[in-house]
Design a protein that fits this description.
alpha/beta, 14% strand, six-stranded parallel β-sheet, globular, 11 strands, five-stranded parallel β-sheet
Length: 341
């Protein structure tokens, strides 16, 4: 029987694959554990590169996450290892987290959406939903997505500098690209924050590594930014406590942590595994979990009245505030939210 190693913090999988695999659940996945494994189901905490995979029998890696920068795709392709991701699985969850941030910022600062320009950097699964949310609520929405703009100039997206100069609120939804024409590593640096409108808001729910922490701290100290919302951090789980304390809202990398988002992530990797190994699970979805709701977006007034029942960013912030050394423990014991639109 082939061996599969599963990150024990991926929900809904216990008991599912045992009829076809020798299943090992682990909190920490290392080279010794995967040496005789056929497949891995992982989260972002497992770095899949030659240090982990050299000499192993791994043929399939499924990550129950939208990002895959923790996987050395060049190494995997060179060694015949198939990669499956859960792209888009938690897009609506992140969008609703952003909705909560916007509502709470409007209460704090005393504005209405029609008075503000929302700049969305990265118009993929998440960013496109955030842009849709913004337009439905009355924001002027502008976007920046260089790869998409090269493919389709008619989209009308702006160059980054123009977006930063116009946006009152900048929300980042980009992948982590460490090199190349679309490099995003430390994209938000001193020049980035210097281009932003004085008093603007910065929100990052994509990857911590797109931010240069010192530059962000400088922008906060100099009051270049009025408010900062961070759900992702450099060096997770050992995040910078000084930066975390300076945020308006700082959370546990849980923007995408809804029941539906997690169910989708688990479902997508299981279905990909089933296709590779001809298992009767190609349409599997966890029993008892409601599917994602895709009703029309709420109006701003309805959103203001309802969002805190499902995602209250002040409460999310309180889970982490002052407890930064406990980041990983708190995140692993986070109670998943429910999506409602």
């Amino acid at each position: 029987m082939k061996k599969i190693v599963i990150d024990e913090n991926i929900p809904f999988l216990r008991g599912l694959l045992e009829p076809w695999f020798e299943v090992v659940y682990a909190d920490r996945i290392d080279a010794a554990l995967v040496r005789d494994a056929e497949a891995l189901l992982i989260r972002t905490r497992t770095r899949c590169d030659e240090n982990l995979l050299t000499g192993s029998s791994v043929k399939f890696i499924g990550t129950a996450t939208i990002g895959f920068d923790h996987i050395d795709t060049v190494y995997c392709h060179a060694h015949g290892i198939q990669i499956a991701t859960a792209a888009g699985c938690n897009a609506r969850a992140v969008m609703q987290y952003i909705a909560s941030a916007l509502v709470h910022l409007s209460r704090k600062q005393g504005w209405r959406p029609e008075e503000k320009t929302l700049g969305v950097i990265g118009l993929g699964h998440v960013g496109s939903l955030v842009a849709q949310l913004g337009r439905a609520c009355g924001f002027r929405v502008i976007g920046c997505d260089p790869p998409e703009m090269r493919r389709n100039p008619a989209l009308g997206y702006l160059p980054l500098n123009e977006l930063l100069e116009q946006a009152d609120i900048v929300s980042c939804h980009v992948p982590l690209n460490r090199a190349g024409i679309d490099k995003t590593l430390e994209m938000a640096d001193r020049r980035f924050f210097g281009r932003m409108k004085p008093g603007a808001v910065f929100i990052n729910t994509s990857r911590g590594e797109i931010v240069e922490d010192r530059a962000l701290q400088e922008a906060i100290r100099n009051k270049r930014l009025s408010d900062v919302v961070l759900d992702v951090w450099n060096n997770e789980p050992c995040i910078d406590p000084q930066l975390a304390a300076m945020t308006t809202f700082g959370t546990l990398h849980i923007a995408g942590y809804t029941v539906q988002g997690k169910a989708n992530g688990s479902s997508l990797v299981v279905r990909a595994l089933a296709r590779k190994y001809d298992l009767p699970l190609t349409r599997w979805y966890p029993d008892g979990v409601p599917v994602q709701v895709t009703d029309p977006l709420l109006s701003w007034s309805m959103l203001d009245r309802s969002i805190d029942h499902y995602c209250d960013i002040e409460q999310e912030d309180a889970l982490l505030r002052g407890k930064y050394a406990c980041f990983e423990k708190l995140r692993n014991h986070y109670k998943y939210r429910e999506e409602y639109f």
